[in-house]
């Protein structure tokens, strides 16, 4: 382990300087979810592609229903049906003076028509009172012929979605750098895109180390604890946008760990380990990875460092394997591991995705505790807290112990105490990293 004390910012800068966005690939829309667009997508067809009705009703000329009321309805001749998915009326049919066409939601507005009257504003072609809805074509032989009584006037363009009112051909649909989520996939499909060029979601392999670890569901015996880190960090990787693979806990044996990691490289864009990076006699990650550098590739290998932070002082970073896959080695204490993931691994994942902003949002908030917070001199401390956006305050949750998993589960923010501050009084404004 290097004797140099690294700052949080120096360590993060070193990581981000070494991580390059993944190469773009072309994916089908369902497979592109969560990925980042590499280039702008331009609209090629208008959306909607034609004037269409936003209601079930009757396509009419405005002048024919001017002044219409229930007492004095406008009586129009129905010349046909226009259903969604149809081409509209016959080529030689036009809605002329005194005429109307029965029209369904999404159907193209027929020639001659200027607006749509909702069916509830008519008698539905029955000759009776106001209709409650449009009867099915098969059950309403009077629907496409005969007469309809209209009880209200409409303005030009009423209940009509105009062609291109959403987007016009040539307009930008989505900009490069956009994350492809459900609404974006819907837009891409609506404008006819079946594939899109994106940077793929990074594949993250997470493994924990420690002979004391067993899997949840098994029975604890003397000296054993459940492996929580690999579950938490795998979930955190997915939350960051990655495809994450969790590897069961590896025992404290350097050769076993080294071979396990080598086996995982085939499906990894980044490897995250937790545990075994401190100065103990059984700190297996440091033992296994301190000498994995490629002699032909300067800068490869994993360096173990001390950081001026709490929690999370011991850290490791480097690259391994023939493709120089980035590896981040995090401490084993649950809070240390999670805080380290948020500060270092999450930005690396976001950088691999090609995102411009890789950081969690940071805000200023007043400390809402009933007593001062203490912090060791020379270390940047990250305390768990709950942030109240409305009040602009943050309240500490639990203590500073790096094993307090229950308190971590209640937190939605990290309270940042700078290196040169040893005490933070209640009401003091401080930086807060938002985790949700």
UniProtKB/TrEMBL annotation:
EC number(s) stated in the UniProt entry for this protein: 2.10.1.1
Enzymatic reactions: adenylyl-molybdopterin + molybdate = Mo-molybdopterin + AMP + H(+)
Pathway(s) served: Cofactor biosynthesis; molybdopterin biosynthesis
Statement: the UniProt record of this protein carries the keyword Methyltransferase: no
Cross-referenced Pfam families: MoCF_biosynth, MoeA_C, MoeA_N
Gene3D superfamilies the record matches: MoaB/Mog-like domain, MoeA, C-terminal, domain IV, Molybdopterin biosynthesis moea protein, domain 2, Molybdopterin biosynthesis moea protein, domain 3
Residue stretches making up the MoaB/Mog domain: 205-351
InterPro entries: MoaB/Mog-like_dom_sf (IPR036425), MoaB/Mog_dom (IPR001453), MoeA-like (IPR038987), MoeA_C_domain_IV (IPR005111), MoeA_C_domain_IV_sf (IPR036688), MoeA_linker/N (IPR005110), MoeA_linker/N_sf (IPR036135)
Record keywords, A-Z: Magnesium, Metal-binding, Molybdenum, Molybdenum cofactor biosynthesis, Transferase
Known cofactor(s): Mg(2+)
Family recorded in the similarity comment: Belongs to the MoeA family.
Function: Catalyzes the insertion of molybdate into adenylated molybdopterin with the concomitant release of AMP.
Listed name of the protein: Molybdopterin molybdenumtransferase
Provenance organism: Streptomyces badius
